[in-house]
Design brief:
The chain is α/β, with parallel strands linked by helices. It is 19% helix and 42% strand. A six-stranded parallel β-sheet has the order 3-2-1-4-5-6, sandwiched between helices. Strands 8-7-18-15-10-11 form a six-stranded antiparallel β-sheet. A six-stranded antiparallel β-sheet has the order 14-13-12-9-16-17, with no helix packed on it. Strand 4 (69-74), helix 4 (76-85) and strand 5 (93-97) form a beta-alpha-beta unit.
């Protein structure tokens, strides 16, 4: 295949954490890009786990400063990690699915090179995905902050009893609930944990946030969707052992009286899709709709 002129001059490759089995695919993709006169950098942990030498190696936090496209080989978890690491840089991501569902990874491993050839030729669309910004307040002081592309989850830990939460939206009291926890989800995250907990599927272009209770004690406590400009204040009224997670990763343990403040982040994540990508086609395929 002859070299083509591409808008991307330097591409970073990020592989699934602790998965050395994808070495051949990473090397195949790197070789393909080099033949197109595109410079290649390999994320540090990916190179170490796959025993890859002979390429420029960079830490994941440095990718945004040296590359203009990141290709993520793995599942949605790998994509989420890469997206958060590159938040401060306007660099699009494209995913090659090496996980299970792969709602965020468009290219299959079998058609990876064919798909990348089309993308390098300019046959793609860029979509902006919203993020959540969350702050943890202890004793009226902000002690931690983070971002989530999928969801912010406040939940009980281990075998502890139900936790009691107070939920306020835009300084208006909504309710108190006893449950296993609460999921605050972006539209992107509504096909993740939120879906398993009975939440709605929101189209990623929708300007909304889903609030989904986890196993509520009162069965009438149902998921709701609110405007993405809303500010959500969650108060730990009673808990023996609780925590807050960002995109499935433990962020901080919580105690009674702590607050989790969630709102839409100013930053967004750029996902690159091949031309012809359809969110509905993806849902039909991944969820086995008829």
């Amino acid at each position: 295949m002859p070299a083509m002129k591409s808008a991307f001059q330097k591409v970073a490759l990020v592989g699934k954490y602790m998965n050395p089995e994808m070495r051949e695919q990473i090397l195949a993709l790197a070789g393909f890009l080099l033949k197109q006169n595109i410079k290649v950098v390999i994320e540090e942990s990916t190179a170490a786990q796959s025993d890859i030498l002979g390429h420029e190696i960079v830490h994941i936090d440095a990718i945004g400063a040296c590359a203009d496209l990141a290709i993520v080989l793995g599942g949605d978890g790998t994509m989420l990690t890469a997206a958060r690491a590159l938040l401060d840089h306007d660099i699009p991501l494209v995913g090659v699915n090496r996980g299970r569902f792969g709602f965020l990874t468009d290219l299959s491993s079998e058609s990876m090179l064919e798909g990348m050839a089309k993308i390098l030729a300019g046959e793609y669309n860029i979509e902006q995905r919203m993020l959540l910004s969350a702050s943890i307040q202890c004793d009226n002081e902000i002690v931690s902050h983070g971002y989530a592309l999928n969801d912010v989850v406040v939940n009980k830990m281990g075998m502890s009893r139900l936790i009691e939460l107070e939920v306020n939206i835009d300084e208006q009291f909504v309710h108190r609930q006893r449950s296993d926890g609460l999921i605050i989800s972006t539209p992107t995250g509504t096909t993740a944990y939120s879906l398993s907990a009975g939440g709605p599927i929101l189209h990623p272009a929708l300007d909304a946030i889903a609030i989904v209770p986890i196993c509520p004690h009162t069965l009438s406590n149902r998921p709701i969707a609110i405007n993405a400009s809303s500010k959500i204040d969650i108060v730990l009224v009673h808990t023996e052992d609780a925590a807050v997670h960002f995109d499935g990763q433990l962020h901080k343990a919580l105690k009674q009286g702590d607050r989790v403040l969630v709102q839409r982040a100013e930053k967004t994540v750029s996902l690159l899709h091949p031309l012809g990508h359809s969110h509905y086609d993806m849902l039909r395929e991944k969820l086995h709709w008829g």
